[in-house]
Design goal:
The complex is a heterodimer of chains A (362) and B (326). In chain A, helix 2 packs across helix 3 (110-123), helix 2 packs parallel to helix 4 (139-151) and helix 3 crosses helix 4 (139-151). Chain A has a 6-stranded mixed beta sheet with strand order 6-7-8-3-9-10, with helices on both faces. Chain A has a 5-stranded antiparallel beta sheet with strand order 13-12-11-14-20. Chain A starts with 6 loop residues before the first strand and ends with a strand. Chain A is 23% helix and 34% strand. Chain A has helices at 45-53, 95-104, 110-123, 139-151, 169-186, 197-203, 221-226, 231-236; strands at residues 7-16, 19-29, 34-38, 60-65, 68-69, 80-83, 157-161, 189-194, 206-211, 214-219, 241-250, 255-259, 263-266, 277-282, 288-290, 300-310, 314-320, 326-332, 347-351, 358-360. Chain B has 14 helices and 4 strands. Chain B is mostly helical and 326 residues long. Chain B has helices spanning 2-58, 84-91, 93-126, 132-140, 147-158, 163-171, 173-179, 193-218, 222-229, 234-245, 247-262, 266-271, 279-289, 293-325; strands at 61-62, 65-66, 70-73, 76-79. The interface between A and B is medium-sized, with 25 and 21 residues.
Chain lengths: 362, 326
């Protein structure tokens, strides 16, 4: 890092009549990053984005872009543009005029405006829709107009508020990749807000998980998934089995945790003391199922197959353990017509490797 | 067995179809009833009277009765259309001037109503939600008093020693109005263009405010944020986003003010003067003072056509344009 980051959010607080929507958030974002703010609705992520866009004032703290404080710039005079949730396209203007709107405000000569609008139309493949009004476009096309409009002024920072929230699932998957390609093509630094963890994982370089106005963890998508810092992050990013237990044995290179249904042997040390309450997080795809008891005594549990759902590439099992806990297991279907496939009511043994778990102390 | 099942299925489908059919029929009848009642009302109270007026304007007087347009005599059917009334009102300058002056007063009233009503409706629509019903109530409050009484009240307010009169004279505004030609002389406010315009604007302002308010309060405020984000200051955003989007409200309000203003009779009668020519008064005079029904009918028919034809063209154009912006 060396010198300061491109976008610095420093101890930012937003207070709405005593309710802290954003509570002491600090994030450093580098140039060219796509940073996703992920969290459930009402966690403060949209408020934080609106402060970046200049639509809300900062109660305390500072936001610096390229070393300059945003508070000194009014929203209409700042190199940040936003792509709004459900787009907020101007319904009375054509696609062309929507994209040109920002450029016209800069007193740019007419031919320069036309040049830039054409470039944006080409970038988003909207050329043949230039004369249409927004309501004559499909959801995906409207989304591209919104993107073209927010990129037209060549902002230094692009804000995306639930960029794909208004699209249906199938279109969303295609658009995610397309959107990232365009953003990377332009090379703009990006902060996006989403409640969809899949969207955050596929699109961003780093994710910040927010809850109740605070940032719980910042990291790359794989860091968030494989080493969540706490129960909330583990549960919010992806599917997870959480087991309550007690730290039974603490060694420098391994720990043993006693849970109701099994004993966990974890192949790395943790900071904790014997006897403390901990939570073990175990991802469903890291568990193997068998009909016979595996070797050893750790990292296994048996139960009844309560539910089974076939998804083509994989099958999801829900195994009821003796304590009543439901263990979610994803098994990939590597073979066709597997003879020994488990079915409803079968007793199954679930096992996992010592490196599969994450021990959470908070 | 198989055939039996098929038969059952077919018959049940048939019944299903039957249910659909009858529901379709009854809903169509309902739709006709709903649309039909207002249309019947319009036909009986607007179209038929208008045709009667049109007929009177085109028919020959036979003593005190109006002649028939169609006559049947010895196997010859004759259609007699007398256009001399129309020629007369085209040739007599008075009618042309009066039409023009009516349109001018109506236009001025509409513009002033828009100038006062738009900011009012705008701030009403942007006011805090809990105050809006109260503000709306205040706009509608005048309707609780008879229209006639309110216009009479202006007579009192604007004639000598009425308090509005006193304020205007005290501020010396009457001199300004006199130089502008709106009143005949300083200190003489009643029965002038000024008093007529005040009365019309006062009366028709709510008709401008209500559709504008309805339109502006529906507007998506994120569009203004988007405009600000793209570099429009609030003033520019107002003119490039808010005003174009409220076009439908502006048009609706302007129509609601302009159309009744053209034919207005009561306000010019009570607040206008000898110089304030309005077509409504001319019509009244022709009907009831001169008792010249054919000419009066001609004036009325021309007025209706003058309003309706441009309106119809405008509406058609607007409907096409609206299709694009919704």
């Amino acid at each position: 890092m060396g010198s300061s980051s491109f976008l610095q959010i420093q101890n930012v607080v937003k207070d709405f009549d005593g309710y802290k929507a954003v509570n002491n958030v600090s994030i450093d974002i580098e140039k060219g990053e796509i940073f996703a703010l992920l969290g459930p609705s009402g966690c403060g992520k949209s408020t934080l984005l609106r402060m970046l866009g200049g639509f809300e004032t900062v109660t305390s703290g500072r936001i610096l872009l390229n070393g300059k404080d945003l508070a000194d710039m009014p929203p209409y005079d700042c190199p940040i543009n936003m792509m709004f949730q459900s787009y907020a396209l101007f319904p009375h203007l054509t696609v062309w005029d929507n994209i040109a709107f920002g450029l016209r405000r800069e007193k740019m000569p007419k031919d320069k405006i036309a040049e830039q609008v054409e470039a944006m139309l080409k970038l988003t493949q909207l050329g043949k829709f230039a004369k249409r009004k927004p309501h004559q476009l499909s959801g995906g096309q409207q989304q591209r107009v919104a993107l073209a409009r927010s990129l037209a002024k060549k902002p230094q920072l692009l804000l995306l508020d639930e960029p794909l929230g208004a699209l249906d699932k199938k279109l969303r998957e295609e658009t995610q990749i397309e959107l990232v390609n365009i953003i990377e093509n332009v090379g703009v630094t990006c902060v996006m807000v989403t409640h969809d963890q899949e969207e955050a994982m596929t699109m961003s370089t780093r994710i910040g998980v927010m809850s109740a106005g605070q940032i719980l963890q910042i990291g790359t998508p794989s860091e968030m998934y494989e080493t969540p810092a706490n129960r909330f992050v583990a549960g919010f990013v992806g599917n997870v089995n959480l087991m309550e237990g007690v730290l039974a044995h603490d060694a420098p290179d391994h720990v043993v945790i006693d849970c109701a249904d099994c004993k966990h042997y974890v192949g790395h040390g943790i900071t904790g003391t014997e006897g403390m309450d901990v939570t073990v997080a175990l991802r469903p795809e890291k568990i193997r199922l068998s009909t016979t008891k595996p070797e050893g005594e750790h990292n296994m549990a048996s139960g009844k197959v309560k539910e089974k759902a076939y998804f083509g590439a994989w099958t999801v099992y829900r195994i009821e353990l003796p304590s009543g806990m439901i263990l979610k297991v994803n098994e990939s279907n590597t073979e066709r017509h597997a003879e020994d496939a488990l079915t409803w009511g079968d007793t199954a043994w679930a096992s996992w490797s010592p490196s599969a778990q994450v021990v959470l102390t908070s | 067995m198989r055939a039996g099942l098929g038969a059952v299925r077919r018959s049940s489908r048939f019944q299903y179809g039957g249910v659909f059919m009858s529901r379709g029929k009854s809903s169509r009848a309902g739709r006709f009833a709903v649309i039909g009642v207002p249309y019947l009302w319009l036909i009986v109270f607007f179209l038929l009277p208008f045709l009667v007026i049109l007929k009177i304007s085109l028919s020959e007087m036979e003593g005190v009765a109006f002649g028939n347009l169609l006559t049947w005599k010895e196997g010859v059917m004759q259609l007699t259309l007398k256009f001399s009334n129309y020629l007369f009102i085209v040739q007599d300058e008075l009618y042309f001037k009066t039409y023009l002056s009516s349109v001018r007063y109506a236009a001025v009233t509409t513009v002033i109503c828009l100038a006062i009503g738009y900011p009012f409706a705008y701030f009403m629509a942007r006011a805090e939600r809990r105050f809006q019903p109260v503000l709306l109530m205040l706009v509608m409050l005048p309707f609780w008093t008879s229209f006639l009484l309110r216009v009479y009240a202006w007579k009192g307010l604007l004639s000598e020693h009425g308090w509005v009169y006193n304020v205007i004279v005290f501020l010396g505004l009457d001199h300004v109005l006199a130089t502008g030609g709106l009143i005949s002389a300083p200190g003489q406010l009643m029965n002038t263009s000024f008093s007529l315009s005040v009365g019309m604007v006062y009366t028709y302002l709510p008709f401008m405010i209500l559709p504008l308010y309805a339109n502006l309060s529906k507007m998506d405020l994120r569009l203004l944020e988007a405009a600000a984000d793209l570099g429009a200051n609030p003033w520019v955003a107002f003119w490039t986003v808010t005003v174009p989007l409220s076009k439908a409200g502006i048009i609706a309000g302007s129509m609601l003010v302009f159309i009744p203003c053209i034919g207005e009779y009561v306000i010019p009668e009570l607040l206008g003067g000898p110089e304030t020519l309005m077509i409504g008064r001319v019509m009244w005079d022709e009907f009831f003072s001169n008792n010249d029904w054919p000419i009066a009918s001609t004036v009325a028919a021309v007025m209706v056509l003058l309003i309706i034809v441009p309106l119809a063209i405008f509406n058609k154009y607007e409907a096409e344009a609206q299709e694009g912006s919704r």
